[in-house]
Every structure is written in C-alpha cells, then in structure tokens.
Amino acid sequence: MTSTTPSSPPPPNPLAPGTVIPIMAAIGVFGTLYGAAAQPLFGSWLTMFSSIVIFSGTVQFSMLGLLAAGAGPLAVIWAIFVVNVRNFALGGALRPHLTGNRWQRLAVSWFLIDETVGLALAAPSSADRILLRAGAGAYLAWVVGTGIGVAGGAAFGLAGMASAIFPVLFIGLAALMVRSRGALVRAGMGAVVTFVLLLMWPGLAGLAPVLGGVVAAIPAVGRA
Amino acid sequence: MRDLWLILVVAIVTYLSRAAAVVLLPAAQGVLLQYVSRLPAPLFAGLAVFTFLGERVAVPEPATLAAALAALLVTPKRSLGLTLAAGIAGYLVVGWIW
C-alpha cells in the first residue's frame, strides 16, 4: 500500500481518454487548418501526402508559410532544420526512459512530437507504450484533420479557436512536468527567456523556446 | 514535381531529427541525465509562449488571452483535460462578450 501526502497529487494517467482525446481534438483542428491552407498551394493529394510523411504541424506550417512568402527550397530546408532542433531536446529528455531496443526506438521515434513527449514524460515508466499509443492517435487525428481541411471543412471561426488551443495545450503539458518548486521556477524562466528572445530576435521563431528551455534547465539558473 | 521533392526532403530531415535523438545519440547519464530531466518544463513553457505570441510576436486577441489565463488558473490541478476545457471555456466566454 502506498501513501501520498495531501500536497502531492497522484500522477496523471497519460493514456486516460480525458487526456488523449483533447490532444487528438486539438491536433485534428490544426490538421484541418493545415489542410485548408495548403490545398490551394500543393493541391489535394500533395497536401495529404505531406501530412502522411511529415507529421509535424510546426514543420508543415513553417514550410507552407515560407513557400507562400516566396522562399526557395534551400531556405525552406534550412528553416525546417532549425525548427527540428528542438527534437534533440525532446528526444534527449525522453531517451533515458525508452526501454526498447534500437529498432523499436527507431519505430516509435516516428511519434516523437511535442504533445506525445509531454505525455510520455508524465509517466516515464511507460514511456514506450505512451509514445506509441498516443502517437498513433495523434497521427490519425493529424491525417484525418488534414483530409477534412482539404475537403473544405475549415470554417472561419475555427481559425481563431485553433490559435488559442495550442498555447493552452502547452500550458497544460508544462503543468504536467512541474513536480517541484524548482521545476516551477524553471518553467517560469523558460517562458521569460523565450519571451525576451522573441522580442529581441523575432526571426528565431521556433528556436526561441528551445533556447529558453536549454538556458532555464542550467542548474545555476533554476535550482531544484 | 518540385513541391513533391521538397516535401520528401522535409520529411526526411524531420524524421532523422527524431530518430537521431532517441536512437543514434547515447542515453544520457549522470549530470547529463539530470540536465535533460530538467528540460521539459521550461521547454513546454517556452512553447506555450511561442504559440501564444505567434511568429509575428504580436499581442493576441482578447479571447486567446482569456483562454491562456483560464488555462493557467487551473494548472495546479495538473490535468490536461481540465486545462484544455478551461482554456476553451475562457476563449468562448470572452469571444462571446467581446
């Protein structure tokens, strides 16, 4: 029998429907927006193909935005490389908790996205299983959402709500990671550093939160 | 045809960055393990700020602001479902009033 103190709530179940379904819904909404936005540029089949083979909202929206602004392929690829740098931080945090062999890790790495890593780190003893199951749900939601968007299902009101869903989602994931006062301080530091970086160098875009996280995790910055 | 190749290259770059992080790179130990275990909370907090402000670093609409504030209010519960519900409720209420 285990005992818990009143100040330490039981750890959340990352695979509970109340946790996974909201994530799938949020990803599905963003997939719909991506499908609606990409269809005029790529056409229906290539838009669907991009969601099937890339499976990253940040990457796909970045690619779309750059192409729409007239950027060339090399600029797009460089920008995507920079955006993907955060996968090293996410994967680095998750790697110690993955128990599968090299081939199993290679397979589940397909599902390594911000949301699934957040869930897996909330219950690190089941990280492989969570990454696989939540990742499969997220992938399904992303592809189906894209299909709805391609088919013309993106309503105007959806765009505004989607812009609010992702910050809320990341606030929730950050809260799941905060298990001590030190972690709370580091989360605050990560937010402040990201904010300052974005103000000073808006061009950093998706790299700013990576730098913010890396700086705030330095022991001398946010003591646990 | 150019778009097809670009999408394929972007897909490969994206997947390689994921695979390298959990397959090619060695598992963190000792001080490095301690460090990477400290990364997620500030990283997700940073992502929240980035998605809140957007790439143009602009003040969001009141409804988006309300969604974020409502989500922050329920974070002590550490429930993702509750956080999302609070955020959406905040968005809808302020969007309806504004």
Shape of chain A: globular
Sheet with the most strands, sense and barrel status of chain A: none
Q: Into which percentage range does the β-strand content of chain B fall?
A: under 5%
**For the report, how would you describe the main beta sheet of chain B?**
none
**Number of helical segments of chain B?**
5
Mean pLDDT of chain A: 82
The secondary-structure element order of chain A is HHHHHHHHHHH
Q: Share of helix among residues of chain A?
A: over 70%
Count of domains of chain A = 2
Number of strands of chain A: 0
Features:
heterodimer, A: 224 residues, mainly alpha, 2 domains, 11 helices, 0% strand, B: 98 residues
Explain this structure.
The complex is a heterodimer of chains A (224) and B (98). Chain A has helices at 17-42, 44-53, 57-68, 73-84, 86-94, 102-108, 114-122, 127-150, 156-177, 181-200, 207-216. Chain A is an all-alpha fold. The longest helix of chain A has 26 residues, at 17-42. Chain A is globular. Chain B has 98 residues and is mainly alpha-helical. Chain B has two domains: 1-37, no CATH class; 39-98, no CATH class. In chain B, 78% of the residues lie in helices and 0% in strands. Chain B has five helices and no strands. The interface between A and B is large, with 101 and 72 residues.
